[in-house]
Amino acid sequence: MQVWDLVAPLAAELRLQEPRLYMAESGAPVDSSAPATLLDGEPLLLQEGQLPWDTRSGTDVRLRIVEELLSSEKDYCHTLKTVADLYEKPLRKLLSMEKEDYKSLFDWVEPICSLSKMVIIK
Predict the structure, then answer these.
(1) Which residues form the DH domain (predicted)?
(2) What is the pLDDT of residue 86?
(3) How far is the C-alpha of 31 from the C-alpha of 23, rounded, in Å?
């Protein structure tokens, strides 16, 4: 069973046009096609994905593009955190991975997330 199988009825009841799932604690987006067992006991947020543009942007297309780039970078950073939350920890438990294998698969997440955070700040 996938995560979406569990939340689809609620999304339909709320009449969400573009439902998105997030980890409640970290705000990281959740892959709705992930196995539901990986999120056992984790609180999730279900939100409408299509949010209106920030009114500060007005009609300036360039500012809207920059806002979209910033929003995409924030989503990317949250997605990197999701890798750790959804896959890194469960894989380590389930597969009893060797430390070298574990590091080769997931050691890159933190440095890239740090770089992404620097881009967001600037």
Answers:
(1) 61-122
(2) 81
(3) 10
Structural contact between residues 47 and 75, judged by C-beta atoms closer than 8 angstroms: no
Q: Cβ(73)–Cβ(120) under 8 Å?
A: yes
Q: How many CB atoms lie within 10 A of CB 39?
A: 19
Q: What is the full DSSP assignment across 47-95? A: EES-PPPPGGGTT-HHHHHHHHHHHHHHHHHHHHHHIIIIIIHHHHHHH
Per the listing, tokens 């380590």 go with 92
Output the furthest CA–CA distance in the chain (Å, rounded): 54
Give percent above pLDDT 90 in the chain.
11
Burial of 5 (0-12, 13-18, 19+ CB in 10 A): exposed
What is the length of the chain?
122
Q: Which helix (H) or strand (E) holds 31?
A: none
Tokens of 113: 């997330």
Question: Tokens 């009841």 correspond to what residue?
Answer: 13
pTM above 0.70, yes or no: no
